[in-house]
Amino acid sequence: MVIVTIILDYTIGVVVVKACGLVVEYNPFHHGHYYHVHKTKQITNADCIIAVMSGSFLQRGEPAIIDKFHRTKAALEKGVDIVLELPYPYAVQSSTLFAKGAIYSLYEIGVSEICFGSESGNIADFIDSYNFLKKHQVKYDTNMYRFLNKGYSFPLASSKAFEIIGMKQVDMVQPNNILGFSYVKTILENRLPIKPRTIKRIKNHYHEKAITNKIASATSIRKELINNDWSQTVGQTLPKSSVQQLKKYKSITNQWHTWESYFPYLHYRVISMSTEELAQIHGVDEGLENRIKKTAIKAKSFQHWMEQIKTKRYTEIRLQRMFTHILTNTTKKEMEPFLNMQSVPYLRLIGMSETGQAYLNHYKKEIQLPLISSLKNKFRSLLYTDEKAMNVYYSILPSEQREKLRKQEFQLPIIL
Amino acid sequence: MVIVTIILDYTIGVVVVKACGLVVEYNPFHHGHYYHVHKTKQITNADCIIAVMSGSFLQRGEPAIIDKFHRTKAALEKGVDIVLELPYPYAVQSSTLFAKGAIYSLYEIGVSEICFGSESGNIADFIDSYNFLKKHQVKYDTNMYRFLNKGYSFPLASSKAFEIIGMKQVDMVQPNNILGFSYVKTILENRLPIKPRTIKRIKNHYHEKAITNKIASATSIRKELINNDWSQTVGQTLPKSSVQQLKKYKSITNQWHTWESYFPYLHYRVISMSTEELAQIHGVDEGLENRIKKTAIKAKSFQHWMEQIKTKRYTEIRLQRMFTHILTNTTKKEMEPFLNMQSVPYLRLIGMSETGQAYLNHYKKEIQLPLISSLKNKFRSLLYTDEKAMNVYYSILPSEQREKLRKQEFQLPIIL
User: Fold this and answer.
1) pLDDT tens, residue by residue, B76-112
2) CATH topology of domain A4-119+198-257+342-415
3) What is the ipTM of this complex?
4) Which one of B56, B271, B307, B407 would you mutate to disrupt binding with A, by most A Cβ within 10 Å of its Cβ?
């Protein structure tokens, strides 16, 4: 779960409209997400909640269990007013780029505050951490470099470097804290007119695998859905709107999207690529192409492949992201413009409530970027990478279902 | 069915060994093929029959119904003594390159005569045709160019140009005649020390779709196998050795290899490639990349895709070859060395009889090229494209079967 809230004071005529943005994945939308929306409204008095959500593939480098449209519907029914899709080139990335894409998307749509879920719920910790790191940046970088050279993974090297400089304010091992810190860093470093805030997460840990509570982790919910489909346990962790959308999607596709369902394609692609071609894919660095080719041929499943390929240096998440880029054929060349851009190139609108629609009607003329509401739009070519990822996402389905679901991209945004 | 016989007189000590080569696909090995082997031995008095056979993918741009090893075993049991694999870069090509790869492979292994199946069975027709064409080459080329510019397909433009120059000796509409003519042309044009011969084909046409006789076309046999599996009709068209190998292969894989089984991979690959990337694939010419992309997204099956994409200009066979190169990711760059080479780069030995083994033991030292008998061989990197095609060929199978069948590539050649 990735949550951020961004709040904007924007004067429409004489009325001040408070619009709040959330950085989310909703994979799937559960009670914890609803709590976040609800709490955000409560502490900010926001009139309009704007979420920027990963689309077909997610930050940890995996397919979303159901598509973005059905996840969007579930969220709109539980109080979110606008859902923007975080473009693929930012969505399937480590925290820095992910945060850049998300924060700038919300910035461009006009918000002025953020608030994300964290273990402590204390925003001062994050701001202090940022200032503390800035002061000790050289020492941090030196140690980071040293640990990476020792063969440590990026997250481990980073948390060890934080330990050495004596960062105590935020536990930089928790994924949510790392993301929250990246949001704060993006805002402060770029002097964005956004005030960061955080709310305390409740009752579950990001990686928790079993459902122990009505507020369960998305990981445990997905596990339950994939293994046992609709057990009673899983039902109680989800708002009715989410259950409806999950069931609706499953009735069309007759399957959940998991890495295992894409394994034959990933495997086929790798065995038919040269190492030189693999090295052109975003995320295939440091000679990893040889390791990928070597382990591919005997891979029996995605899980089995992962076990063969992972090392101390490359975490499963890092490799999952790389595999996602191979699956979607996302090249280094294709990523370049996104990496070199100050902001994001466009906003992709997936759905909105009446409140969201009213907000957009008023604020639209202030938006500097193309606001793309359908692939029919004249800016379609900007979304080349997103459209490709979407086509790959649906490619595991029979042609009839594939066509039906793809059509959503060419329709007007969902309006609740 | 592609059949050629090449005969060599080679003195081993004081014994003259007659070695004959056949250009074949054996998809699958049927009574017509046996007749060809038998008749070849009869008219040539050959001691040793050498076949050069397409491997995983065939001249018409389709997967072989079962793998090359099982087809080889069937052939060895019916009188073929050596089976060489025609390298993929020659196998999946129009007649000129196909003939170049096949004839040079047999030339390099030392043969001195060829004899292929044709409608007339009269070799003088082919030699006369070659000389006739040489005399009218300019007129032929001019008309060929004119018809191609009119939007005619290559085969149609070619047969019309032949008509205009008044070529009467050989009917250049029959696929077998076109191939035979290409063999003769390759030999005469390059002054290879090989005497071409032909035998008259019996009782079936290349494209015949229904089984009407014990000697049936491979097309009709495949159709029967795919639709009705082991009907009584199909059994009578195949030698026992072929039935055994087909049954053995099917018991491992539980399926026949058809284009439809590769359709999900082909479709997935195309939707995740840019038009620029597609244009780098061998066979994707003249802006076809746009037509491929345009028709891909709605394709329901391979057959359905083919119906959408084919035009007057592009025959199904031409497009099937192109699709094979996309499926196997065979790039223009990768093909370059093969196109620019005078001969072939290596000989790949798949299997042999005791006679074949004896022949090779004696003749081996005369062979100028690497004779590769296993992928374990130090020349493995030469076979990059073949290995890739083989991996793609098996990629539709579950990992256990895939591994089992792949292993054959790393073992010693089959010895009967």
Assistant:
1) 999 999 999 999 999 999 999 999 999 999 999 989 7
2) Rossmann fold (3.40.50)
3) 0.90
4) B271
